[in-house]
Design a protein that fits this description.
This protein is an alpha/beta fold and about 425 residues long. The protein is built from 15 helices and 14 strands. β2 and β3 form a beta hairpin.
Length: about 425
Amino acid sequence: MSYSNKIKGIYKEQLKDIEDKGIFKEERFIHSSQAADIEVEFPKGTELKKVINMCSNNYLGLSSHPEVIKAAHEGLDSRGYGMSSVRFICGTQDIHRKLEQKVTEFLGTEDTILFPSCMDANTGVFEAILTDEDVMISDRLVHASIIDGIRLCSAQHDTFKHSNMGHLEKKLQLHADKRLKLVITDGVFSMDGDTAKLDEMAGLCEKYDAMLFVDDSHSSGFIGETGRGTHEKYGVLGKIDIITTTFGKALGGASGGCVSGRKEIVEMCRQKARPYLFSNTIAPVVVSGVLKVLDILSQSTERRDKLEKNAEYWRKGLTEAGFVLKEGDTPIVPVMLFNAGLAQNISRDLYEEGVYAIGFFFPVVPNGKARIRTQISAGHEIEHLDKALEAFIKVGKKYDVLGKSKQEIIAQYGI
């Protein structure tokens, strides 16, 4: 047989090594819709437990909004379950172009092209628009899907220190001879919750005749005065050449993504981006739901405003309790624990207290920077946050991390 005992043994050994290091990822099964309160089966086969969800990307609480669900049903009834084809053959419906136009208007760009996911957008865009005569200069903390896209592209790749504009300028000067220069960043960095300095970056790109790429997946819908994203927050609407984002987080929470930006760049993706050319189109049910989400966001900033207040309240509560937090002003609030095993143990005990929050550790974050990344939603009420904070404090006291500095926690638990 091709799958020999030798091959099987290699994988068993690797899995045991992961388990021995205390970083084995166990699946948790949600038996309800995505919301502030969810029912979870963990470990597998155990009785369901109702818990407060503190680690979802459902920032605006729209995943189970009745109007979005209704719109999805209508899309299912009128346009079917799936496209059974890629876009350039027979996989494009009228609603796909309608969504592209609405996203373009919402983001303030020139054109938009849909992808099955934002990961597909990120893995497709660079190869489609750059050659080996060009250079990509990325922030060192960009998302994994951006890194994968960079790897697939023949252009030269360089990096700059995280959010260090002086270092970015030096790299732009270093690569002045390249045909095209593309600066690459996240809008909101998903593990830390900080935002890119897009105003300064746009200025540098203009100075050195470079293009600017932003993945705004953890921003679209709720960052900026009207939720357009980090480019709105930093006053550079219309100055970002390429924006990728997802419909799988604040904008409905289902799936799908896009590349939005300069008309010529979008057209290049339509002609050459492989995930667009060789993957089925976003299902009509999802398109219809996202269209309704954009309608809801155009009518009011109520959910975005509530989310901002919830995030401020949560961050203040954790700070006063004595946890070590990453600085930021987004709904992503990482509680720093530095040790993978400690993060796992605290996550497990929080679950027992009725709070669902997952530990993050290497290779998801750098070694020695383990954490529990909490994420706030407009679906949370103050009662949810108070109950979750009570659980965090109880478990924090158990492991003696409250009021401790980074150095003290590391001295106690190691990295």
